[in-house]
């Protein structure tokens, strides 16, 4: 077990600057502390699991893959969910993930949400119902067909028309 930890320490010493550059490339702001935190977390987790290090053929590649996975996890944690339920129609309550952006990007996101709500509001009631049920609530057409006592083909047509209208309305 000490031999595996020594092997990891040797790779870490040799590759630390490359690991740091690799993680920094994944961030737009190139925050050194975040990159170092990620490297520390991966190193700590590998040291905790020193029993598997001996089974890993290419420990450097494994370390890079672990770093990449941790960066993805880090980006996922940075995503917030905002409920947009201040609309008159309760069916328009959408859960849209938005990342933490700067002021310009936040303004773009707000404008996009406003355009999306406006476009959804222009759909007929039945088109809006089927589009929201399938796209937002992730209901299957089969379940909706049974629940609403409508043929699947009818629901598919409504969804198709709704999607075409939304594309047209959001085209620019």
Automatic annotation (TrEMBL):
Keywords: DNA-binding, Sigma factor, Transcription, Transcription regulation. Coiled coil: none annotated. One of its GO terms (biological process) is DNA-templated transcription initiation. Pfam families: Sigma70_r2. InterPro entries: RNA_pol_sigma-70-like, RNA_pol_sigma-70_dom, RNA_pol_sigma70_r2, RNA_pol_sigma_r2, RNA_pol_sigma_r3/r4-like, WH-like_DNA-bd_sf. Residues 29-78 form the RNA polymerase sigma-70 region domain. GO terms for molecular function: DNA binding; sigma factor activity. Belongs to the sigma-70 factor family. ECF subfamily. This is RNA polymerase, sigma-24 subunit, ECF subfamily. The lineage of its organism: Bacteria, Pseudomonadati, Pseudomonadota, Gammaproteobacteria, Alteromonadales.
């Amino acid at each position: 077990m000490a031999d595996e930890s020594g092997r990891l320490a040797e790779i870490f010493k040799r590759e630390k600057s490359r690991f740091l550059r690799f993680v920094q490339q994944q961030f737009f702001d190139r925050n050194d502390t975040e990159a170092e935190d990620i490297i520390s977390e991966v190193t700590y987790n590998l040291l905790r699991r020193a029993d598997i290090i001996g089974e890993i053929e290419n420990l450097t590649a494994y370390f890079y893959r672990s770093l990449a996975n941790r960066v993805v996890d880090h980006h996922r944690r940075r995503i917030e969910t905002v409920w947009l339920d201040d609309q008159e129609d309760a069916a328009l309550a959408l859960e849209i993930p938005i990342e933490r952006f700067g002021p310009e990007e936040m303004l773009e996101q707000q404008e996009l949400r406003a355009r999306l709500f406006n476009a959804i509001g222009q759909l007929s009631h039945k088109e809006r119902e089927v589009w929201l049920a399938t796209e937002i609530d992730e209901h299957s057409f089969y379940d909706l067909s049974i629940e609403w006592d409508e043929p699947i083909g009818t629901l598919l047509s409504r969804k198709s028309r709704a999607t075409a209208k939304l594309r047209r309305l959001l085209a620019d």
